[in-house]
What does this fold into?
Amino acid sequence: MYVNKEFHKDTPRPGAMTDRGRIYMMLGEPKSISRFNPPELYPGELWSFYGDVSLGQPNYFGLIFYKRHGSGEYVLYSPFMDGPKSLIQYTISMMVEVQGQNRALDPADPEPIAAFLNERAPDLVPYPLSIVPYDIGLEPSAFSEIQMADILESGRKRVNPSYATHFMNYKGLVSTDYLTNFVDSEAAVIVAVDPVNGIPMLHYSVAPKHISFDYYQPTDKYFCDYAVDVSLKKGETFIYQSSK
It folds into this structure.
């Protein structure tokens, strides 16, 4: 699995259990990924997404992952709970220019912190304060927590529970009725007797609502592997089985 392999590199845990792996599985591949690692900041990444408004997501938003205190795996950053100061490796002598004046970088003073981040990692601005760009002031947005919760909940809205709900209804009858729900399909099955020779015939139709295709560049062709397994049972006896 891509997620387990890709996000397992800096942690002993499976990639799917990390924050980046979890978000990748919920929201899919980001529109873009910007990595930042200047000496004064902890290593991090900014993932940008176009949101699905129908699922309650913002039109456009960005999520920051960073190595808290500079070590361990990347964790999901919260503008309100973590705050921009958590992204910076502070030293006593750190200074930044604000409106033409040099000011000490004080973790309790948001103005020099904003100027410092803008200077060291401009791609991050304004995401340390809000996951929605330019929906900001000088202080981290508490509303980002609500937006983050809506985004994480929206991933669950993509899950179709019909396989689980249909399993008990159709268990032991015609497996295509529930197996096709793995890819959110519609299926119709009927056993009809041939009027000429009297032999019963199994007819089924499967129509997937969505199919993903891969592209093979050498032949300039798109392809899709689609497997259908059919079993017809009477009681505990298999009358017909097929795999295509």
User: Anything to note?
Assistant: Helices lie at 2-6, 19-27, 110-120, 143-157, 162-170, 176-179. The chain has six helices and twelve strands.
